From TrEMBL:
It comes from Streptomyces plumbiresistens. The lineage of its organism: Bacteria, Bacillati, Actinomycetota, Actinomycetes, Kitasatosporales. It comes from the Bacteria. SUPFAM superfamilies: Metallo-hydrolase/oxidoreductase. Residues 34-212 form the Metallo-beta-lactamase domain. This is MBL fold metallo-hydrolase.
Length: 275
């Protein structure tokens, strides 16, 4: 059965001086996983974070960016999971794309395999793969008058994750370090992931932009820590596969997008490949 598509959520999240932050969240329904992509709008231009997954959402995200009437200066891909970059080949082939060098190498080497692995999605997948051409390095850069801080976070939800912070306005683009209101994609790196989230809790940042779900506050970051701790304990107690999934579904009935269990469990509990 093909994944069904329904309305995304589009909102302006914050405005401070010349900077506006927008978010675009794909559906929470059916087997969608509420992919969240963002726009940093400054005086003269736009910077985008991630490129959506399924073709209709990628096109709608691009349409929204274009409706703001400013050029897209660049787009950052946060990490190598295809739900963050498949949409580049659908709607962002003309845009300069930045990513960590590890993410670039992965998409270069495995992008096509990933696309053929998703054949069941039919025309919801992109017609081609776009490999990011520009390296995003840890450090600071001022873009259109706004200071950005980039970091390379290892071994959490993914091996290499790019985070982007705007210290002057207190916004932290955490992408898949935070699943906001949805079930998390779990990996074996839960200890380090929890540490990184704990650092967020004692930081000066107030608004956390997730890779899935709606914009988050520190309470949601804390709830992610609690979820990871519970999952780690359940696995330590010997729960695997369906017994683990049922335990987590019962413990967190309020969280959406349970389809994610079937994506990560073959990797966490079996020997399935990383992509
Ligand atoms: Zn993701």
């Amino acid at each position: 059965m093909l994944t069904q598509v329904s309305d995304p959520i589009i909102m302006t999240v914050k405005q401070t001086g010349d900077v506006r932050i927008h978010t675009f969240v794909a559906s929470f329904a059916y087997s969608n996983i509420a992919n969240a992509t963002h726009i940093i709008e400054t005086k003269n231009q736009l910077v985008l974070v991630d490129g959506q997954f399924l073709a209709p959402y990628a096109r709608a995200f691009r349409d929204y960016a274009d409706s703001l009437g400013k050029p897209i200066e660049r787009l950052y891909v946060s990490h190598r999971h295809p739900d963050h970059w498949f949409g580049l080949g659908t709607a962002f082939t003309d845009i300069t794309v930045y990513a960590l060098s590890e993410t670039m190498t992965f998409i270069h080497e495995h992008g096509e395999d990933s696309r053929s692995d998703h054949w069941k999605l039919g025309d919801l997948t992109p017609e081609r793969i776009v490999v990011p051409k520009q390296v995003a390095s840890p450090g600071e850069e001022t873009i259109d008058g706004t200071r950005y801080v980039f970091d390379r976070v290892t071994d959490t939800e993914i091996d290499y994750d790019l985070t982007i912070r705007l210290p002057e306005i207190g916004v932290y683009f955490a992408q898949d370090l935070i699943y906001s209101g949805t079930h998390l994609y779990l990996t074996k790196h839960m200890d380090h992931w929890i540490q990184v989230l704990q650092e967020m809790l004692v930081s000066d940042y107030e608004l956390f932009m997730p890779g899935h779900g709606l914009p988050a506050d520190k309470n949601e970051v804390a709830r992610n820590i609690e979820y990871l701790s519970a999952a780690r304990q359940a696995i330590g107690n010997g729960l695997t596969n369906d017994t683990f999934k049922n335990f987590m579904l019962q413990r967190y009935p309020e969280r959406k997008c349970p389809g994610i269990f079937d994506i990560y469990m073959p990797r966490l509990f079996g020997g399935a490949s990383d992509y």
